[in-house]
């Protein structure tokens, strides 16, 4: 692409745009970045999903940069373009650089791109289609940190569905925030160890639920219960999935919105990806984190008890430690088996 005259180009090595990359470009005072999705079959199929995840990344980056207010300086704007079928940037730059230049010029803001993709498959002519559309699109708009941009896209949703902008605004304000994220810029001081552990747990819960949303048949085989999730919405959604309610039409509106957002953010995997194995390992890791937290809390309770009657907490410590040891052995076996499977496929 540089040889074809596109000077400001980098290859992101398989990741559309990370938060750290966003901040590097933003610090360089770059006003507009265009992410080009490949035009192969996999790229075409996953463009909406990758776009949704990219929109989330940008929203988090904007929040970290402290630009989630009307008076804040406008930073890097991220746009998306999708290359023609069976085409990558190198090939198109060699064969038809002017076509590539036109695609870059016609790129759409990331949120507009994702909303249009969701709308194109939702069947907006019927009420059920409009409900499905809002279940997926409204959470994205609700998490937009810039209030003016949020209002503009609420207007877009209003035009597409026929609902008033005021009613959509109320729904957006009532939508649950995603784990570990707020809709306004917060304290960016270094997190404590407890905060870091909570963030890791929430991130693991989100990853596990994203996989289960994509592979709901696996939910019934996971050795977890709703209480194993710190996020009550994830617990409620897991309960529904494990009982066989796999269609979003069976879910309450707020759980349908969460399921749609999780499904859009689920990672893309190769054909040989073993969903059951990955879900089992993630579930074991979540159980391990929960047991470690319970063990730490019980030990603290034991220490605070001092010279008093501590027989019950002491028994709890032994029981939790035993459960943790058994769980770690199970997780190690699964990890070893998974590594062996990967090595066999590579060979």
What report would you give on this structure?
By secondary structure, the protein is mainly α. The chain has 4 domains: 1-117, Dna Topoisomerase Vi A Subunit, Chain: A, domain 2 (3-Layer(aba) Sandwich); 122-175, no CATH class; 200-265, no CATH class; 275-346, Helix Hairpins. The protein has helices spanning 19-27, 41-64, 89-95, 97-105, 110-120, 127-142, 147-161, 165-174, 193-214, 232-242, 253-265, 275-305, 311-346, and strands at 32-37, 77-82, 108-109. The protein has a 3-stranded mixed beta sheet. α2 links the parallel β1 (32-37) and β2 (77-82). α2 packs across α11. It is globular. The two termini are 35 Å apart. The relative contact order is 0.08.
Q: How many strands, what sense, and barrel or not for the largest sheet?
A: 3 strands, mixed
**Approximate helicity band:** 55-70%
Gap between N and C termini: 35 Å
- Using the coordinates above, name the CATH class of the largest domain: Alpha Beta
Structural class: mainly alpha
Quick one: how many beta strands?
3
What Rg is obtained from the alpha carbons, in whole angstroms? Answer: 23 Å
SSE layout and pairing:
Layout lengths: L18 H9 L4 E6 L3 H24 L12 E6 L6 H7 L1 H9 L2 E2 H11 L6 H16 L4 H15 L3 H10 L18 H22 L17 H11 L10 H13 L9 H31 L5 H36 L1
Parallel strand pairs: 1-2
Antiparallel strand pairs: 2-3
Helix pairs in contact: 1-2, 2-5, 2-11, 3-4, 5-6, 6-7, 6-8, 6-11, 9-10, 9-11, 9-12, 12-13
């Amino acid at each position: 692409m540089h040889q074809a005259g596109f000077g400001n180009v980098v290859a992101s090595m398989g990741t559309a745009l990370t938060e750290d990359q966003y901040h590097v470009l933003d610090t360089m005072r770059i006003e507009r970045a265009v992410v080009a999705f490949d035009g192969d079959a996999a790229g075409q199929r996953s463009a909406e999903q990758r776009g949704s995840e990219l929109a989330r990344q940008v929203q988090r980056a904007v929040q970290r940069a402290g630009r989630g207010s009307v008076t804040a300086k406008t930073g890097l704007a991220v746009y998306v373009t999708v290359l023609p079928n069976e085409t990558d940037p190198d090939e198109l730059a060699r064969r038809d650089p002017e076509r590539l230049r036109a695609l870059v010029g016609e790129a759409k803001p990331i949120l507009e791109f994702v909303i249009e993709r969701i709308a194109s498959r939702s069947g907006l002519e019927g009420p059920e289609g409009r409900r499905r559309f809002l279940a997926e699109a409204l959470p994205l708009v609700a998490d937009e940190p810039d209030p003016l941009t949020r209002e503009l896209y609420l207007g877009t949703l209003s035009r597409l569905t026929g609902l008033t902008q005021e009613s959509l605004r109320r729904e957006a304000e009532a939508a649950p925030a995603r784990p570990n994220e707020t809709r306004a810029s917060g304290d960016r001081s270094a997190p404590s160890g407890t905060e870091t552990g909570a963030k890791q747990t929430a991130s693991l819960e989100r990853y596990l639920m994203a996989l289960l949303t994509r592979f709901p048949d696996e939910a019934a085989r996971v050795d977890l219960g709703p209480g194993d999730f710190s996020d009550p919405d994830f617990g409620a959604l897991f309960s529904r999935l494990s009982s066989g309610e796999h269609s979003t039409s069976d879910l309450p509106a707020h759980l349908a919105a969460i399921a749609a957002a999780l499904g859009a953010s689920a990672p893309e995997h190769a054909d040989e990806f073993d969903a059951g194995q990955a879900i089992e390992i993630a579930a074991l890791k979540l159980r391990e984190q929960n047991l470690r937290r319970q063990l730490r809390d019980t030990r603290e309770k034991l220490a605070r008890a001092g010279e008093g009657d501590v027989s019950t907490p002491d028994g709890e410590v032994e029981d939790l430690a035993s459960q943790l040891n058994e769980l770690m052995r199970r997780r190690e076996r699964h990890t070893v088996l998974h590594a062996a499977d990967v090595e066999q496929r590579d060979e």
